[in-house]
Specification:
- With about 90 residues, the chain is an alpha+beta fold.
- It has 2 domains: about 1-45; about 55-90, no CATH class.
- Helices cover about 45% and strands about 30% of the residues.
- It contains 2 helices and 2 strands, in the order H-H-E-E.
- The chain has a two-stranded antiparallel sheet with strand order 1-2.
- A hairpin with a 2-residue loop joins strand 1 and strand 2 (about 80-90).
- Helix 1 runs antiparallel to helix 2.
- The longest helix is centred in the N-terminal third of the chain and has 24 residues, at about 1-25.
- The chain is flat.
- The protein starts with a helix and ends with a strand.
């Protein structure tokens, strides 16, 4: 997830840099349009994901609690650390 955030930030920075470079060679109206499109791109958010339980009838105020850790797994290619997560519903 951090890698995706870094890629997004790099893309936004690159778009802003291109906008700055183009702003010097474009008319003021075109530069303003380029700046507006860069700000619109930066204002976009990732979609919010709502998770609902499948087989339990919980109250509307129920929340999902998770714990995460790294676990050692022995694989044919060698020992690796893998992320693990366990979640449960609290009513």
């Amino acid at each position: 997830m951090a890698n995706a955030t870094a890629k997004t930030m790099f893309g936004l920075s690159l778009a802003a840099l291109i906008g700055v470079v183009l702003a010097g060679s474009l008319s003021p109206a075109a530069a303003q349009d380029a700046d507006r499109s860069t700000r619109q791109l930066a204002a976009q958010r990732r979609p919010h994901i709502t998770i609902h339980p499948r087989h339990r009838h919980l109250s509307p105020s129920a929340t999902r609690h998770c714990t995460a850790w790294l676990a050692v797994e022995h694989r044919p290619s060698g020992t690796v650390l893998t992320p693990q997560k366990r979640c449960w519903w609290v009513d």
